[in-house]
Design brief:
mainly beta; Immunoglobulin-like; 6 helices; 3 domains; Rossmann fold; 716 residues; Jelly Rolls; nine-stranded mixed beta sheet
Length: 716
């Protein structure tokens, strides 16, 4: 970290923000104008686009008394693949529309990695602004013998893959059929493996010859991943396809062929290679693995992990982004980290680059961030060495509010000694200017095995010209940690580079900064902080109707009044199970139909299932839709009367198991148990929906103004 670069200041997007939190625990990133669902739930993995860890795992596990616990071996077990989460593409397959159902797809799901790879559509694959080696340095072929050779124009699928490899991409060919790229999408003969550097053989071997035993052996070569098994037995006929399709070399000039696994019988005869890597002149890599080597669970997991690690080897992780969540209740700066905002906020996890290699840190460090109208808040959790450290320091660099204004460099140690300097670049010690009596407030708590800290950075610390923050604003950020042990003679970590959040393996790179993205709270929204002329999309999934942010409220109009497929402004997903939702709203106008008015959905899916409370002309009804089958007026879950008005109302809905409760303006509406009503199971998961409902036959418009939405998720 010796090179220096002036950090750009806070920037505002000219189009929709990228990325933004779409639903709890997931993010969306715009790549080439196309919206891409990415990271971040369940795994406590770090993403290349939004380094985040599972907030659902953030509760106190009993091992410490701070507000969350970031200990999770998943990050270490799969390292460094997590750093490329969301940048690994799965190529589409014409014969198997959903590759999640293949063996490798199921393995990715079991690893909870299916949320971190991107399953491309054929249209996305041929779009060079979307599928390219920059956006997706790694691509996986998980199909069978058919592939998308042509999507629109002749052989545009081939062109997309060749362009990816020409730009240095990595292609892992891990098929479920014996001969990949053999037929096109219409089942016509193609035999295209050679186009992508592979010379695949078709022999007569179909299982072990009579009296012979076949065994795979790992090639003894330093370029072969040492995590591959030394020997593997040939699969049995009941386990996998017996048609042997070895790779025998490479096609093209300037390529290097590196066999990984060879097949031998018990006499020593060799039958070819079952797995190999090819290094192309462009710097691209291609890996082929015979389909039946991936048949057994243990073999598949070992080989898949080895090939993924090989694919990202030597790649610089994309610059990370951390979502800084909006909060209406600023945390108390006491070092406890026990406020709900820290459970909701994703976490950046530091890594180490010593020896020009990415590796997990010996002493894990995580950082979370949130903001309000007056300050930016950071929460830090640092695991401590078993031996005493002479100094244990976390450093934070934050860019200034413009491209030319200086930024801040904060150092905070485990004793709550804080120093603040103005700097122009990371490690720019020469021009750093100490700030006397900085307005920045911090607190530290010591625990068994770790310490935690909270830091409040007032926005006026950047100067009086600092503009108010808005959703979608970006600020450049870097975080590092340095530990100096009291006795360094027996700890190699003492001589390593500091752990950092935004790592770089490129010694010529002068960009050591990640990005802090100012975002909404995934569980609540008071509709302040939005950019001018925002319509809520990007922070809410708006299905139907028209929406706009106006005077710090959300104004919705005329969503289809069909509760069998509820539409509206949606937030949350199937990770939301038991929770309460409270909404403050006002009826600006109501259509003429009896059921027109404000509707509120809970445990809703994107295809329209869920529960919906309808507030109509003078009655309310609670309905249910499961598998597209909906209750009607005569068999609703509950109903009653109410008197609408143009004043502000507050509705509260709570779901817990199969129990549903509703309260309107502090008056109970219903308390029901959905015991397989209509002989359909109760809905147990899903997000929320706001719907200003208007019937197709209604006269006039339904316009509802929403002032505040709060969701409280119940911990498992």
């Amino acid at each position: 970290m010796s090179t220096k670069k002036s950090a750009p200041g806070i920037t505002r997007p000219t189009t929709d923000p990228s990325p933004y939190l779409d639903r709890l625990g997931r993010s969306q990133v715009y790549l080439g104008g196309v919206c891409l669902l990415m990271l971040t739930t369940l795994c406590c993995w770090t993403s290349a686009s939004v380094q985040a860890m599972d907030s659902n795992n953030g509760g106190n596990n009993g091992s410490s008394n701070d507000g969350y616990d970031d200990s999770n071996d998943t990050f270490v077990d799969f390292f460094p693949i997590p750093l490329f989460s969301g940048r690994i593409a799965i190529l589409p397959d014409p014969a198997q529309p959903d590759l999640r159902n293949t063996r490798i797809g199921q393995t990715l799901a079991a690893w909870q990695m299916d949320r971190h790879v991107v399953y491309l559509t054929p249209e996305q694959m041929i779009d060079p602004s979307f599928f390219n080696a920059k956006n997706f340095p790694v691509a996986l072929y998980l199909g069978g013998e058919r592939y998308w050779q042509t999507v629109r124009d002749a052989e545009d699928g081939d062109a997309a893959l060749q362009r990816h490899l020409d730009d240095g991409g990595r292609l892992l060919v891990l098929p479920y059929g014996p001969l990949p790229f053999f037929y096109d999408q219409k089942n016509a003969h193609a035999a295209s493996a050679g186009k992508f550097g592979m010379r695949l053989g078709v022999g007569n071997l179909q299982g072990a010859p009579e009296g012979r035993t076949l065994t795979f052996h790992r090639i003894e070569d330093p370029t072969v991943p040492d995590s591959l098994p030394e020997t593997l037995r040939f699969p049995m006929p009941y386990e996998a396809d017996q048609r042997w399709r070895p790779i025998s070399g490479t096609v093209g000039e300037g390529t290097v062929y590196r066999p990984w696994i060879a097949l031998h019988d018990d006499t020593g005869r060799t039958y070819g290679h079952g797995a190999a890597a090819i290094e192309l002149a462009s710097g691209a890599r291609v890996v082929y693995v015979w389909c039946s080597l991936m048949a057994c669970d243990q073999t598949r997991q070992t080989i898949l992990l080895a090939t993924l690690r090989y694919a990202v080897e030597g790649l610089d992780p994309p610059r990370p982004q951390l979502a800084c969540l909006r909060t209406t209740e600023p945390p108390i700066v006491d070092g406890k980290l026990d406020e709900p905002i820290w459970r909701a906020a994703p976490a950046a996890r530091l890594v180490n680059t010593s020896g020009s290699r990415l590796r997990p840190t010996r002493y894990p460090t995580t950082v979370r961030a949130c903001w309000d109208d007056s300050a930016i808040y950071l929460a830090v959790r640092c695991q401590t060495p078993s031996r005493q450290a002479e100094r244990d320091v976390v450093e934070v660099w934050m860019a200034g509010d413009t491209d030319t204004s200086p930024g801040l460099h904060l150092t905070l140690d485990a004793e709550n000694r804080i120093e603040v300097r103005t700097v122009a670049a990371v490690d720019d010690v020469a021009t750093a200017s100490p700030i006397a009596d900085p307005p920045i407030h911090s607190a530290v708590r010591r625990h068994a095995g770790h310490w935690t800290a909270e830091i409040a950075i007032p926005l006026d610390a950047y100067g009086p010209s600092m503009e108010p923050l808005r959703f979608g604003d970006h600020q450049r950020l870097q975080v590092a940690r340095r530990i100096q042990l009291a006795d360094t003679t027996s700890d190699a970590a003492s001589d390593r580079e500091p752990d950092v959040w935004a790592p770089s393996l490129d010694s010529s790179s002068d960009d050591y900064w990640g990005t802090l993205l100012f975002d909404v709270h995934p569980w609540s929204d008071d509709f302040t902080g939005y950019p001018p002329e925002a319509d809520g999309s990007g922070w809410w999934t708006c299905l139907g109707g028209t929406w706009r942010i106006e005077q710090d409220t959300l104004l919705g109009q005329d969503v289809s009044g069909d509760w069998s497929r509820l539409q509206g402004a949606m937030r949350g997903d199937d990770q939301w199970r038991d929770y309460s939702m409270e909404v403050r709203f006002r009826i600006e106008n109501r259509g003429s139909a009896p059921h027109d008015g404000p509707w509120f959905g809970v445990r809703c899916s994107s295809d329209g299932d869920g529960y919906v409370l309808q507030l109509g002309a003078n009655t309310w009804q609670l309905h249910k839709t499961v598998f597209g089958v909906a209750t009607r007026g005569h068999n609703s879950l509950a109903q009653g009367s109410w008197i609408p008005s143009d004043t502000w109302h507050t509705v509260r809905l709570e779901v817990d198991g199969n129990r549903l409760q509703g309260v309107l303006d502090d008056q109970p509406l219903f308390d029901v148990i959905d015991d397989a009503h209509l002989d359909l199971p109760s809905r147990r998961r899903g997000g929320i929906v706001l719907a200003p409902a208007r019937s197709a036959r209604s006269k006039g418009n339904t316009i509802i103004r929403y002032d505040r939405v709060t969701v409280n998720l119940k911990e498992d």
